[in-house]
Amino acid sequence: MHRKKTILYIGGMELPEGNAATQRVLANCKILDEIGYDVILLGVNKRKSLLRSTYSKIDNNEGLTCYSCNYPDSFLQLVWYTFSSCKVVNFLKNIDVNISAVILYNYPAIPMLKIANYCKRHNIKTFADSTEWFLNVKNPIKNIDTFLRMRYVHFKLDGLICISNYLANYYKKVYNVINIPSLVLRNDCNKYNYKPKKTRVFTYAGNVGNGNKDKLNLVIKCMAALNDSNIRFNIIGITEENLFKIYDDMLEFSNFISKHVKVYGYLPRSEVGKIISESDFTVFIREPNRQTNAGFPTKLAESYSFGTPVITTPTSNIEEYIVEGKNGFLAEDCSVPSILEALTKALKLSDQELMSMHDFCEKCNPLDYKKFSNYFEDLLEIKNES
Prior knowledge:
It is built from 15 helices and 14 strands. It is an alpha/beta fold and about 375 residues long.
């Protein structure tokens, strides 16, 4: 009788609704499933009804076995989440499934080490899925945790899944490292019909945070400088009030914003997909630094999944997945002249050229999860038994 090995994937993935972490992990889980492993997800949920001390089983549209605990919503709960491994260890002790490996997604350092030590005693391999390395977080606990995780604990594990070349190169001395960017779980291009209009439509969808990562103000400034009446910029994930609050230099562009910028605030994923698929381009501009180079934008994979080309800047190893003039335009850097040049290229395209770029995104997606299966097989080296 053929017995499939089971992998436990643990982290801050919001279940079942989903955030950027969820989209990455679900794509990775799909690969694991297709190469012959069962996967159990342990994530978080912001519903108050879930018990804080245990994981509760929940439904999931992807057909995975999923458990969720309440998201820490106070300082004490955050401290407990940062230092305690009890919840996961108890889950491992009580589950009636033979776990062969545990993958910890951006997990706090001290509980990660405790879980790894428990797994080592029970012949369970432990891996980390590392997707971030934040700069100057104004939280001493977070700073210490990040330092310990990135510079000490990761080196104690059986292997790493790194989201970028930056991280993969940093950990290349670790025995087992693979580089897996944010991937596309499914192709959603066929859900909507793209057709160019007279007004060229650009869209940003995401969480701007404090504005240090995604430079929406630079995008708006450059669009205003183009002085093109047939341009529209959709912004999803922030309110107009917060747009002016976070980017205080936007007040002088309030007239342009009122005429050419549509600020949606937060929208369900289905509505976000419709807006992206009907846009000519998505656009996000980032400066190169450790945070942006260590990560990899989910926005790139998301845009391709809806068949929409991208305008962005060369952070992380994005340039490996952008074919200039085919699935996007890469501004040379984060300067106004470079961004203006990329936007001008996009605005000069004919309707037919735009259709060709959307068609290329749909048919030649470099971030299709199926292209990365072999990497996981090499990483895990856990053979299913018969």
